[in-house]
Design brief:
eight-stranded mixed β-sheet; FAD/NAD(P)-binding domain; binds flavin-adenine dinucleotide; alpha+beta; D-Amino Acid Oxidase, Chain A, domain 2
């Protein structure tokens, strides 16, 4: 039987939420063990677009809400971490773009005048033209308006490698999880037969959290899944573009981010409305055809004969709520030693860690144990989707 461990905090699920929290706790002197059943970040995190939202997109609904103000501080916190002087040292994480853009194709510009003139947006977006346009839009045929948002786009594979390095020896590959109880009380978990006792147990397992709760005999907090059908395009002629293309509705018609592939080519990763309801209902070939049509209409100068395509399906995992509305804050629920949550966005991983730390502060959870964790089986890093689907 593997040797038992006593740690301050036991975290299950090494996506961005678990990895960020783990790194923060270690920096504050807590001992931690972070259990992952597959690869580090391999579910939602590696499939995300890497946009560090500041909430401006939500202003499209009307005025910024109080909730969207909570996200407004995230770009600053990430920027400081990326510079190596924030709450974590993420100086080994690659920044893909200093800005994300809002792009309104010619026909829409009129509708947006009042939006950009509104108090909520003033000072947060600037119009760009000519050489300041994203490289993919610098074509004589381009019509429309482009606004620069003070939001970053990060390279998620390098973020995961950076957070894995900050995790030191605290990572544990483990699949089979059972409760460890002292009488009625949850005292820890048994992971692949290894007893791990902890002052606090945090479930940050994304879509896997519902099953983990079930294994602990709990059905709250309830979780919802929001399916997406994303599109990838790879070609030697694609140029960087990080933008929400507006379609007149509350959601971007298409959200494009651009990622470096190992062979030096760029990969466009397409989300937004195209990846939601109608896109989810389409078979992959029809979804690719829909994306090709969008690109032909929005970026007609791109020679698609050089481009290869793929799609991927992934569910967002979030706390259950009515009408599948997007939550704007990290979510955390606690019941005695157990804390359960979803960041709801990559950008909100710092907010998720804040909520866990606030709960520790409230309950007086202090760093006490320093177990020897050398030689734990370590989970591998996730591979980016484009390296698997479009090698
Ligand atoms: C297509 C897409 C695009 C997105 N784009 C953005 C974006 O641009 N900006 C943004 O801010 N957000 C974005 N998001 C949202 C963001 O990706 C997620 O909110 C965030 O990655 C969730 O992180 P997480 O750590 O909670 O979950 P996950 O990344 O899903 O990690 C959960 C981990 O738990 C592990 N696990 C599950 N069950 C168990 C178990 N029983 N035992 C051990 N381990 C387990 C899984 O293997 C996984 O590694 C996007 C999401 C999707 C799907």
């Amino acid at each position: 039987m593997p040797s038992a461990i006593t740690t301050d905090v036991l975290i299950v699920g090494a996506g961005v939420a678990g990895l960020w929290l783990n790194a923060r706790l270690r920096r504050l002197g807590y001992s931690t063990v972070l259990v992952e059943r597959a690869s580090l970040g391999g579910e939602q995190t590696i499939k995300s677009q890497g946009i560090i939202h500041g909430g401006t997109k939500y202003a499209l609904h009307g005025a910024l809400t109080g909730a969207s103000e909570a996200i407004a501080d995230m770009p600053r916190r990430w920027r400081e971490a990326l510079a190596g002087n924030g709450e974590l040292n993420l100086s080994a994480t690659r920044l893909l773009s200093e800005a994300h853009y809002l792009w309104s194709p010619g026909t829409l510009a009129g509708n947006l005048t009042s939006f950009f003139a509104s108090k909520a947006v003033r000072g947060r977006v600037d119009q760009v033209k000519g050489e300041q346009l994203p490289p993919a839009l610098q074509d004589r045929a381009f019509k429309g308006k482009v606004y620069r948002l003070a939001e970053l786009v990060i390279d998620v594979p390098s973020l995961l490698a950076n957070l894995a390095q900050l995790a030191g020896d605290s990572l544990l590959a483990g699949e089979r999880i059972e409760p460890l109880r002292d009488g009625e009380e949850l005292a820890g978990l048994v992971v692949d037969g290894r007893e791990i006792r902890a002052q606090r147990i945090v479930l940050s397992a994304g879509a896997g959290t519902a099953d983990l709760l079930h294994a602990l005999g709990l059905d709250q907090p309830a979780m919802q899944r929001r399916p997406l059908h994303m599109v990838l395009a790879k070609g030697p002629n694609l140029k960087p573009l990080y933008a929400h293309c507006l379609g007149g509705g509350p959601k971007p018609r298409i959200t494009v981010t651009t990622h470096p592939a190992a062979d030096g080519q760029w990969v466009w990763y397409l989300g937004g409305d195209i990846a939601e309801a109608d896109g989810v209902a389409r078979e992959p070939a029809a979804q690719i055809a829909a994306a090709q049509k969008e690109i032909a209409s929005l970026l007609p100068w791109v020679d698609q004969s050089l481009v290869r395509w793929a799609t991927l399906r992934v569910d967002r995992a979030e706390p259950a709520q009515s009408g599948l509305v997007r939550p704007d804050n990290a979510f955390l629920a606690d019941q005695q030693r157990l804390l359960v949550g979803w960041p709801t966005k990559l950008a909100l991983a710092p907010d998720f860690a804040d909520r866990v730390l606030a709960s520790f502060e409230r309950d007086g959870v202090r760093a006490t144990s320093q177990p020897d964790l050398a030689d734990l089986p370590r989970p591998p890093l996730a591979l980016p989707a484009w390296e698997q689907l479009l090698p």
